[in-house]
Amino acid sequence: MKKYLNTAFLSIATIIGLGAPVSAQQYANPVGMRYVGSQQYAGTNTTFVNPNVQRTQYVAPQINSIYAQPMNRVSEIPLYGKNKSMYFYGQKKQDEGILSGSGLYMFADFSTGKTNTGINIEHGEVDNAEADANDDMGTANGMSLGIGRVMSKSLSVEFMYSSYNGMKYGDWVKFYEEEEIESEDEDSDEVIIVQTVNDTTYEVIDGGNITSQFIGLGFKYNLENMFGSILGRLKPYFGFQLGIAQNTIKDFTVSDVDGYVGDYYIPDANVDEDIEYIQGLSCTADEPCTAEEYSNGSLNFIGDTTRSFAAGLEAGFSVELEGNLSIDIFYKYNHYGKVKTSGNILSSYDLDETDFYVDADLVECADGYAQASGSTDDYLICISDAYTTEGIQSLTQRRVQSGDMNLRQYGIRLKYMF
What we know:
Layout: H1 2-25, E1 29-36, E2 39-45, E3 47-49, E4 56-58, E5 62-64, E6 104-114, E7 120-121, E8 139-150, E9 155-168, E10 172-184, E11 191-207, E12 209-222, H2 224-227, E13 235-249, E14 252-256, E15 260-261, H3 272-279, E16 289-301, E17 304-320, E18 325-340, E19 345-359, E20 369-371, E21 380-384, E22 387-396, E23 401-417
Antiparallel strand pairs: 1-2, 2-5, 3-4, 6-8, 6-23, 7-23, 8-9, 9-12, 10-11, 11-14, 12-13, 13-17, 14-16, 15-16, 16-19, 17-18, 18-23, 19-21, 19-22, 20-21
């Protein structure tokens, strides 16, 4: 009997001993994937059971890191681009690109706005006359491309190329000419010379496109530390640019249908002013005067390219988007020097020429001449048949048209951080 009892107790103890580990493993807690900073790790919590004590003791998690070296957290440097994440000593960066962590970015922008000065004849040709045919050059549309680098939390430096088009010479060309008019004082019989200014206006019928190219260096200051952000997202900034501008105006053509009269004109002996003109003539049948009348004309103003120092001021707001993109909304004022023509004008006219002379002796007109309708009992005006030459070309120099390239621009810029 005693032998059977010992065998039973031994069997019960063996069963309890074999079941103990199974019960302890039921307390193991799987943890799964964990995050430390921006990195992901796998591990489990392991529990240990003391069979003699009715409680469970927990120890620290065991982390199966994919990195062999100790993980020591360092500062989040740099604070731009894709690298806004936590790093550990000896750990590779998430972005392994060549420019990663350099602070470099690229940008492209579009802007548009009015010009505030026009292009007119330079110096007005007359001191007391102001050239005001054109008030502006229209609307300038600009595109810019460039690269930049973040130098500090407040300062960025940019290198850029900008191109502006859509501008044009205005609808009219105006010239000024001085003229002296003599008049006689009725009381003293003295001759008074009055100097007046006459202007002639021509309509532009073709050409005159104006473009500007700018290449330069820009500096941009973040004002968020000074003024804070607006609505939590709009970060104000101020910037300026310095560089070289190349301004070009293309050839343009104006119309002069009426034309003008040359050095002589056929007088009318019934007009008082023409009688004085007749008395001053020394035309004879052997050496007649030639009246010239120009009509159906056009003037081609030859364009030019001008290079000058250029500067711009800019103010706006930056808005950060997801990833590495951000948008700038800005207002910019640019002064790109002057744009001017070459000063050369190639004109083309139909020329009507008529030979004439005036005979005060009232002798018959010579062969080849006929009596003009303006003849009187005192003056015989003899004229020949008119002959016409089409498309007479002539070149006039140093009549420069110029204007200041002042652009007021509103725009939007897209930036990508490396």
